Amino acid sequence: MPKPQLLETFPNPYADRKYEIYMETNEFTSLCPLGGVETDAAELKLLEGGAPDFATIKITYTPAEKCLELKSLKLYFWSFRNDGIFYERAVNHIMDDLVAACQPHALTVVGDFNVRGGLKSIITASYTRD
Amino acid sequence: MPKPQLLETFPNPYADRKYEIYMETNEFTSLCPLGGVETDAAELKLLEGGAPDFATIKITYTPAEKCLELKSLKLYFWSFRNDGIFYERAVNHIMDDLVAACQPHALTVVGDFNVRGGLKSIITASYTRD
Amino acid sequence: MPKPQLLETFPNPYADRKYEIYMETNEFTSLCPLGGVETDAAELKLLEGGAPDFATIKITYTPAEKCLELKSLKLYFWSFRNDGIFYERAVNHIMDDLVAACQPHALTVVGDFNVRGGLKSIITASYTRD
Amino acid sequence: MPKPQLLETFPNPYADRKYEIYMETNEFTSLCPLGGVETDAAELKLLEGGAPDFATIKITYTPAEKCLELKSLKLYFWSFRNDGIFYERAVNHIMDDLVAACQPHALTVVGDFNVRGGLKSIITASYTRD
Amino acid sequence: MPKPQLLETFPNPYADRKYEIYMETNEFTSLCPLGGVETDAAELKLLEGGAPDFATIKITYTPAEKCLELKSLKLYFWSFRNDGIFYERAVNHIMDDLVAACQPHALTVVGDFNVRGGLKSIITASYTRD
Amino acid sequence: MPKPQLLETFPNPYADRKYEIYMETNEFTSLCPLGGVETDAAELKLLEGGAPDFATIKITYTPAEKCLELKSLKLYFWSFRNDGIFYERAVNHIMDDLVAACQPHALTVVGDFNVRGGLKSIITASYTRD
Amino acid sequence: MPKPQLLETFPNPYADRKYEIYMETNEFTSLCPLGGVETDAAELKLLEGGAPDFATIKITYTPAEKCLELKSLKLYFWSFRNDGIFYERAVNHIMDDLVAACQPHALTVVGDFNVRGGLKSIITASYTRD
Amino acid sequence: MPKPQLLETFPNPYADRKYEIYMETNEFTSLCPLGGVETDAAELKLLEGGAPDFATIKITYTPAEKCLELKSLKLYFWSFRNDGIFYERAVNHIMDDLVAACQPHALTVVGDFNVRGGLKSIITASYTRD
Amino acid sequence: MPKPQLLETFPNPYADRKYEIYMETNEFTSLCPLGGVETDAAELKLLEGGAPDFATIKITYTPAEKCLELKSLKLYFWSFRNDGIFYERAVNHIMDDLVAACQPHALTVVGDFNVRGGLKSIITASYTRD
Amino acid sequence: MPKPQLLETFPNPYADRKYEIYMETNEFTSLCPLGGVETDAAELKLLEGGAPDFATIKITYTPAEKCLELKSLKLYFWSFRNDGIFYERAVNHIMDDLVAACQPHALTVVGDFNVRGGLKSIITASYTRD
């Protein structure tokens, strides 16, 4: 299961102004709970969790009091590696975890998933503090 | 004929918020009812439906209660393979079928068709729920 | 001379909604009345009309009752091949001819001409129905 | 079934010398006899022949007495559209048909197939006259 | 008809050594004698010579006593504009004309023609002095 | 010194409507009055005016009564070749000269200068008629 | 551990000639036994096998009697997902497994690994049958 | 430590109008105070300040009375080379130093840092004069 | 006139082995003695030497006892700025000057000249020590 | 000074065969002993060693008994950061150090240095064991 407890923050050194931080990794991988478009039941037993999914994850946020610590973010992404989760849920789940961790002014998560069945999928979820 | 009954949906896991889903395939093919810009009558008998058209189809939507299921979308696109349909009609037809299937907040379909007679064509149709 | 009478249309199958059609050709060629930046008088006699110009023409429009028929558009562009016309006039002329033929909600023509004298030229003209 | 009888040739206008002709289409599509990596049995009934495959086909040859006629080559490729054939067989089959039709000095066929199951495949077969 | 008499040369300033000259134009256009893959008979009357073809022509040669004069080469290419000629013939014809004009150690002509009927064609012809 | 007197215009053939003209050259060169980031005093004597600068100049304007003549624009740019002028001054100077010559509705000049001292510079100046 | 027993083959339909098959996946991932350049000991406990590595794997081979079945190749690559293996060993191991499975005339494996510590690594191993 | 005293300015030659200046360098390097995502304690002793960071820095500003002198900006960037500073602090620090030096109408600094731990980071800070 | 006396060298620090040095500049400009393809006589008076030519110059050499000093090479290229010279002569002239200056094992000069009259020219000359 | 003692190796796991390893970093930086093309004497005092140089270093080798350890290679490159060294010397020095450390069958080092004075430099040195 994704482990939001891995996420660490540090005090924003310029909390008195609004500025933007973008982070991107092309090394996100998880498993598809149903095996997805391209996998039959027999194959799923191999990995005991579903067929692998691969994505580039892009995060843009405006920090308030806290900034996301880069190394902890890497470990948080690792924690998706061996669990099954759908595209739509993964992207919204990441957004909720990051918002809870650093309580930013605003935050957007884009998940750009590899082609499956000839179809590419990109999911975008955004948060703005009221 | 395109088979909208192939389209399946699943409940949007985050129906309480607006977020965006983009899907794209470069494997869309149909037939041109008249043979189009590049085909004469004799050639049309070969395929009993018209000369082949090829396109990249791009879909962007904001789901409401339902999300489009990826595998069923693939099959729905397959159902255009052996029928004749004009560019303008194909794009608007896809838009209407997808809107009927998942009743989204908003949805856009772009059909980017291969060059014919030295001319490239891109058709864009959009829907917004009132 | 350009032959707008070559342009044909067909009834817009979805005239009840606004959607966008984009068409592009990189096979537009005409002649320059004065020979342009790169040609002297002796050379002009060769073609009895001026030095060749080459351009990519890009058309974007929102159809109303009529759509432009693709094959007739190809022939219309051919009719510029052996006549002399300036860049600015060509782009505006095409825009006027297309608007007259299909009476759209809106239409834009972009003429992206090859480098002459080390200078690239791009002309853009737009029409919106009142 | 592929129809080699569609292939036409014309006399090579420069048969006294060796020169090279390259032709390429990104509009090749056939069906996979087994449904391939990404398709289960239920889906195959939709098209009564297998899941669609898409490829770019590239042909390079040195003509001897005959050249391949371009329009007939287009129709020959169309004849693969509704039949099931494996990648390896398709590429070698095309090579044999083209060699039989024009009896060239040499000929190479490359089939560059779309990603399936996260895997891209490119098959290359070559012929040289003894 | 192509006019090789337009071709001019100047004495090679370094005729005592072998070096290479490459020239390329993306503004080559001619007419197809039969209308080619994409044109029916009615359309051909428009231009009284055939449907337009477009190509990039690439020339590589090792000059001997004479170099090809650039401006005259431009005019030579213009002389193809209003005559019908097949791809294979055009490329070999250009090669023969250039060899006759400058009698080089070696010369290659590549004609890279625009897509017709979904098919791209590239013709390559080479000459080496014995 | 730049020679605005070289600039010529012709009557805008469609002065009754607003449309846009873009022109670009990657062959702009001038000299740096101080030798700039990368040149010492001894080197400056070589050219008697400063170290060479190179830029791509991009002009976008909405013509009113007059259009800028392309060939005269080329010659105007040549007139910067042997004089020293700073980046900021060059771009604003060109803008003022072009506005004076053709009195447009609006005009923008972008000067995109080559890397000096590891730093790239792009200057943008705009004019809008009151 | 990598599972070569997952690899399946089918009889080469054109075993009487030599031709080439290329396959590529950008979805290869394994674990680094030591955590690699970028990971400390505490992080390794998270995945109980090492830090994740990502690579594009490219295979080129000339089949003899047997061809590698695409779907089984996909599953074979999945079997690296949760085990630790060094770059050099992974590429040579894959080469040995594929050669053992299909006994080809020749086979090359390229592993193009993601940047670690600012360094990109590409390993290439080749086999030729004696 | 960064040395803002290195920054020099010159009088804006067109201070009566608003125009934009963009400058970019891909040669920015500093040290990470903690060694960052990819470095352990032993390695840090090598450079006595932390592991190296690399970034492209992009500056856009609207000058008021003063312009930033290019050569002094180069030297100012050099002064970060041997000191430890976090991404977020570096970008905001640069912005504050440049604003103090030239008091512009507006100024934006973007720091696009190299991949660390599979993650790319881009920080953007903006200033607008009240 | 080009000034080969500007070229300086320094002793090759590894003269006991053969290795390769490549240098490239996209800031070469000279004048065309005849005004070239695109310029008439009146225009030539402006620059008193001919129309400007622009090229990228690429040098590859294997040093023997001496290496070409980078700064002096820059100044040597500047010395072409205000003199008229043909493409073929310029490239061979540069080759001869560089060979004379550093007496290398081998040296190649490529001059890649900007488009003139729709034609691009690339000249390549090579030297090998006997 | 570069510290070859930082280089570590591990036993080649497949020492019985020849295969190739490629490694590349775009984070190499050193100082120029003389300040190089773009720096005057006053600037050099800032860094007490010379103006910064930046390069991409590319290594290709065929390991014999030992492989280069990736992490130690990273630290070895760091050791060039604060010392002055010329391009030609740096590339040959790296080659000698790597050959001494791992005694490979063959090894090539390419140093691709950033533009200085409008000139790009690429140095290539190769070693083959007798």
TrEMBL record, chains A, B, C, D, E, F, G, H, I, J:
Species whose genome carries this gene: Gemmatimonas phototrophica
Residue numbers binding substrate: 68-70, 87-88
Biochemical pathway: tRNA modification; tRNA-queuosine biosynthesis
Protein's GO biological process: tRNA queuosine(34) biosynthetic process
Gene Ontology cellular component terms for the protein in this record: cytoplasm
Highest taxon above the source species: Bacteria
Active-site positions on this chain: 32, 53
EC numbers, comma separated: 1.7.1.13
Record-linked Pfam families: QueF (PF14489)
Xref: HAMAP family: QueF_type1
Record InterPro entries: GTP-CH-I_C/QueF, NADPH_dep_7-cyano-7-deazaG_red, QueF, QueF_type1
Catalytic activity: 7-aminomethyl-7-carbaguanine + 2 NADP(+) = 7-cyano-7-carbaguanine + 2 NADPH + 3 H(+)
Acetylation listed as a keyword: no
GO MF, one example: preQ1 synthase activity
Record keywords: Cytoplasm, NADP, Oxidoreductase, Queuosine biosynthesis
Family of this protein: Belongs to the GTP cyclohydrolase I family. QueF type 1 subfamily.
Record localization: Cytoplasm
Function field: Catalyzes the NADPH-dependent reduction of 7-cyano-7-deazaguanine (preQ0) to 7-aminomethyl-7-deazaguanine (preQ1).
Name this protein carries in UniProt: NADPH-dependent 7-cyano-7-deazaguanine reductase
